[in-house]
Amino acid sequence: MNAHKLMLSFTDVFWPEKYLSQEIASIVSNSRLSGAGIARGLDKFILTKPFTGSKWRPIYVDTQLGDNLETSRTMSTKIIADVVEALIGAGSKMDNFPNFPKSLSIAKVFLPEIDLPSLETGRLRLFEIAATDAPLPANMHYLETLIGYSFKRKSLLIQSMSHSSHSTAATASYDRLEFLGDAILDIIIVTELIKYEELPQSDLHHYKTSLVNGDFLSFICLELKTTQTKNDLKQNPDSGHITTEKSHFPLPLWGFMRHDSQEISAIQGEVERGHTALRNDILDALNYGEAYPWSLLAKVNANRFYSDLVESLLGAIWVDSGDLDVCKQVLSRMGVLNFMHRLVKDQVH
Q: Tens digits of per-residue pLDDT, 148-197?
């Protein structure tokens, strides 16, 4: 249903993230999907018993013999909803990743009342309303270098880094892009995990959860950084001669967030101290440990806006580029996919 969430992001290009989340919750609920499945007669085709060829006979035989076919059975709404999602998932597997036309057509069969445009049509809606002449703040050129992608519409990058407390938040905070980026992140992770055909569904779920949770994404946000060089003028106290010395200082991803909140500044200082104290242990566990470091990641106590920045950045890149492979490359640059392959290869608990 991740592609479905992407499609729903275009329901109204000005809806806030809260409304979009509520709309998603109502549409992808078990009761809604199971009702849609029953309305289309899907429940009749769901196999709940093992197939036994020796006892099977075609329906027309029963019809000719006059047998009563009006039988009933009990089935949970979750089973029917799961089959609807499985059909959409099967469509995405046949689509082979780019624009999910088969998934879209299947979703429209079960949810004909929902306006579900193609991904490219919806993306263009968001791209076209993005400002074309927004000047990029000087330091954000370093952010483009950090992620390895140069934006065509610089306003999208600015929006992806703008917290709701910033003076521009009335028209361009990162909330909607974060909602979109959350779906993109899910699609990329699930598409990569599903390549491990030997993994059972329970393991797929656990590995996905370990890679898309807020604590892990916040750690990625804290780790991802570039450096900026500056020239310092120093005067020799004896000779009075002035020399130029170069110095370097880090520019982490979270440092690019635009906000107007003293509280956020205080939180950033506390989180940075916690990250510095725990990062070596977390990296050791992620790279070499036998168990996933849930507790260590939680101890960093990072505010949600750290993980939001990662997701909003992915959303902005997709709207600007229209290419999920570009988003995948950025996610790989962040180290997320390397961690994923390590977890699976070494069967981390």
A: 999 999 999 999 999 988 886 555 789 989 999 999 999 999 989 999 98
Distance CA 264, CA 266 (A): 5
Q: What is the pLDDT of residue 275?
A: 97
Distance CA 331, CA 113 (A): 34
